[in-house]
Amino acid sequence: QVQLVESxxxxxxxxxxxxxxxxxxxxxxxxxxxxxxxxAPGKQRELVAxxxxxxxxxxxDSVKGxxxxxxxxxxxxxxLQMNRLKPEDTAVYYCNAWRVGLSFWGQxxxxxxxx
Length: 115
What we know:
The protein is an all-beta fold. The protein is 0% helix and 52% strand. It is built from no helices and eleven strands. Strands 2, 4, 5, 6, 9, 10 and 11 form a seven-stranded mixed beta sheet that branches. Strands 1-3-8-7 form a four-stranded antiparallel beta sheet, with no helix packed on it. The protein is globular, with a radius of gyration of 13 Å. It starts with a strand and ends with a strand.
């Protein structure tokens, strides 16, 4: 069983930044692709960014050039740096650990972009 705990959400003005963090139980980064997803009110959960075991990253078109996913294997941490935030980035952000046949989710952290 993998446990994921997100933090770092909050309220920020348009154009501002937030840094989300996710701590994973145990040393799982060598076995799982890590990702960030988000779910806005009334919408389906969608992919934001992923990072593979080897460090290859992938981003949704809507966040390319603004968001950066990274991880610290020694600390069992994965991060999402979000810059130039827009109101449409408002959502609950979820950390995910995935490998074939297994997927684990954190409880989510709210990010709100509003003036």
